């Protein structure tokens, strides 16, 4: 089995073969074996020696008693204890105990049925921006089908079954029905009696634990680690944790992160954070300072430079106060603040105050209209236009342009560009 004679006290090789630490749990061992065995399966062109090694390593480590002996005394002690047989089992048997029949049906494999892959179960997981900023772990309890531990997924006490009468073992049933004059519709559906397995188990032989269903419901708690800087849409996968079924490679449970809208911060362009801040006109002209509570609760002091005037809609940024980069959380994006200037309402200033303001602020160009020029002008009246009205007009214009573009494709670039700039 193992050409190389291991050193007397070598008790790490099996862990190395499976690529797990010595502290690996049964679950981790199982996972590591599954992954490596699929990769190295001779039916898939893998190295048979490596495949054997994997099976043997797993066989020993998955048995607490053998693992204990191996950990203390190494492989040789195990060989003695097991009566000289280094690998007492057929490696394919061990593989198939996981995956049922041959995992990769056809292709020259003489073993078993074609094995299908179970479906992945996808869950949306809502996370707040705070959670993505700070990182967190969420414990989620899910129920899933697990192969019945009592009958090992056979469904019967004896392991025997007979062909289903309902479908003659095909698992499918065809029904016909008349849907009109002389028209017959044929429908194929999964046989309800055997639920597609093609097998029937007699009442007496039925496994008492799963009632012949081969699987039982199991509660499972998964701990989902939301790492700093993860994004909405990002997937966190738990391999092989979805519903188990006989002759099926268990699918994955996949959590897709969905970032909840934050009332204050907006994440944009990767790792930049955008926040709006309203300034009074006085603050915009004469300076401001305020405290901004960040996503981790820190208070940032934001203040203008002496003499600085902030214009409506102006952006200002603070480096390294945006979102942390995923996997490099010590690096962060920018925190961008967009300032909005709240102007005083009409009628707030008396004519006297206006004159005062005029004396301070730069002169308006309209002041310089001469009486002659005024005489040449026509009187107009300004009225208010709501933001909705502007939007409606824009949309109408856009629709009009699109219709125009369809008629005349040659001339489409000019109006489009103009549209986009608005
Ligand atoms: Zn059972
Ligand atoms: Zn059936």
TrEMBL record:
Molecular function GO labels: ATP binding; Hsp70 protein binding; mRNA binding; unfolded protein binding; zinc ion binding
Keywords on record: Chaperone, Lipoprotein, Metal-binding, Methylation, Prenylation, Repeat, Zinc, Zinc-finger
CR-type zinc-finger residues: 135-219
Chain ranges passing through the membrane: none
Domain CR-type, chain residue ranges per copy: 135-219
Every J domain range: 13-74
One Gene Ontology term from the biological process aspect of the record: protein folding
Region feature (Disordered): 385-422
Function, as annotated: Plays a continuous role in plant development probably in the structural organization of compartments.
Protein known as: J domain-containing protein
């Amino acid at each position: 089995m193992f050409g190389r004679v291991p050193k007397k006290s070598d008790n790490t090789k099996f862990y190395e073969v499976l690529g797990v630490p010595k502290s690996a749990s049964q679950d981790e061992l199982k996972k590591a074996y599954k992954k490596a065995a699929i990769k190295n399966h001779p039916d898939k062109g893998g190295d048979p020696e490596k495949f054997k090694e994997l099976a043997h390593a797993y066989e020993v480590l998955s048995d607490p008693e053998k693992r204990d002996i191996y950990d203390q005394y190494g492989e040789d002690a195990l060989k003695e204890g097991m009566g000289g047989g280094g690998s007492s089992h057929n490696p394919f048997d061990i593989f198939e105990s996981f995956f049922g029949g041959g995992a990769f049906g056809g292709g020259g494999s003489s073993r078993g049925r074609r094995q299908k892959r179970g479906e992945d179960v996808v869950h949306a997981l809502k996370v707040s921006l705070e959670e993505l900023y700070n990182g967190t772990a969420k414990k989620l309890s899910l129920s899933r089908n697990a192969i019945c531990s009592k009958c090992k997924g056979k469904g019967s006490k004896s392991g025997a079954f007979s062909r289903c009468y309902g479908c003659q073992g095909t698992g499918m049933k065809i029904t016909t029905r008349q849907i009109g004059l002389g028209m017959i519709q044929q429908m194929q559906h999964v046989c309800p009696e055997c639920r597609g397995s093609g097998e029937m188990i007699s009442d007496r032989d039925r496994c008492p634990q799963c009632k012949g269903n081969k699987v039982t419901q199991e509660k499972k708690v998964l701990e989902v680690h939301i790492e700093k800087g993860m994004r909405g849409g990002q997937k966190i996968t738990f391999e092989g944790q979805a519903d188990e079924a006989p002759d099926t490679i268990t699918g994955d449970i996949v959590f897709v992160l969905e970032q909840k809208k934050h009332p204050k911060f907006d994440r944009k362009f990767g790792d930049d954070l955008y926040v709006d801040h309203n300034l009074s006109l006085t603050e915009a002209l004469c300076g401001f300072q305020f405290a901004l509570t960040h996503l981790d609760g820190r208070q940032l002091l934001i203040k203008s430079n002496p003499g600085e005037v902030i214009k409506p809609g102006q952006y200002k940024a603070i480096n390294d106060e945006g979102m942390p980069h995923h996997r490099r959380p010590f690096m962060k994006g920018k925190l961008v603040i967009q300032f909005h200037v709240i102007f005083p309402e009409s009628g707030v200033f008396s004519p006297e105050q206006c004159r005062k303001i005029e004396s301070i602020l730069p002169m308006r160009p309209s002041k310089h209209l001469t009486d002659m020029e005024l005489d040449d002008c026509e009187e107009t009246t300004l009225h208010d236009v709501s933001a909705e009205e502007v939007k409606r007009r824009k949309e109408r214009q856009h629709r009009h342009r699109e219709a125009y573009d369809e008629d005349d494709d040659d001339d489409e670039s000019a109006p489009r560009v103009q549209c986009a700039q608005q």
